[in-house]
Amino acid sequence: WEGMYSGPLSIAAHFAETFLLQASSGLRFAWGKLSFDELRQIARLHEAVMWLGSNRNISVSRGSPMLAYILVTLEQAATGKRIFGAPHYASTGTLSAVFGHDFNLQYLRRLLDVNWLIDSFALDSASTGAVMRFELTRSFLGELHVKGELISASLDQQRNAAPLLPPGQPPGVALFLDMPYSQFRQTALNRIEQRCVPQPLRTALQSIRKAVQAEVGKEPFAVRLARFPWLFLSMG
How far is CA 7 from CA 12, 17, 27, 45, 109, in A? Predict the structure, then answer.
């Protein structure tokens, strides 16, 4: 506890994060005392604090509301119906965006037990300017599928404000989740701690649980011919 919030690691990590933000913004960083390679090395201090601060218990308590929000949003898009208690109406568009912090990405990563790797950043790093995207698609036969990706420009691209559209190099994309929506829904319900989800979102979550229980015994049709974008839920 002391090491994370008030010890040497915490202090060093604050400086490392500040230097990293300076570098990614194209500014002079660390008073000019560090090279780019040295900056990448000390960035591990910030990542260590992120790892400590997103352990299983903390991720469950603080990440459950966000995962519940994502699940309710996808469920409304999948059914086209408003769920009582949902914070918004069923979307008729193709994009729902949520803006959060790096810790939010780590909470979701721990809850879903996924991993990712982006160029110039360490494994499972919540890199600066990253976007976590959940894509819900529907096949010709009506089967729903979820794909999760972490998208982030490299540190060099961010520092140089490099264009990410052709002819420039696109940002890095790491696929961390790819499964039928029914499996994703069940996984999310298993990982979310309902007591940590505030009302009225908890009521919407309970409605989904009841709907899933009513479907017990029904086998999903497993053939998929094609997939079309249905909903993009991004946060970063």
Answer: 9, 16, 28, 12, 26
Per-residue pLDDT tens digits for 86-99: 887 776 566 888 88
pTM: 0.84
What span, in angstroms and rounded, lies between the C-alpha atoms of 42 and 8? 13
Complete edge-to-edge strand list for the sheet that includes strand 228-235: 95-98, 228-235, 131-138, 144-152, 172-180
Strand partners, 141: none
* Residues 199, 202: Cα–Cα separation, whole Å: 5
**Which of 195, 189, 181, 180 has the alpha carbon at shortest distance from 209?**
189
| pLDDT band with cut points at 50, 70 and 90 for residue 227 | very low
* Strands (DSSP E) found in the chain: 95-98, 131-138, 144-152, 172-180, 228-235
Half-sphere exposure of residue 142, counting CA atoms within 13 Å on the CB side?
3
What is the rounded distance in angstroms from the CA atom of residue 45 to the CA atom of residue 178?
Answer: 31
Q: How many Å apart are CA 24 and CA 65, to the nearest integer? A: 30
The two three-digit tokens of residue 70, written as one number: 């994502």
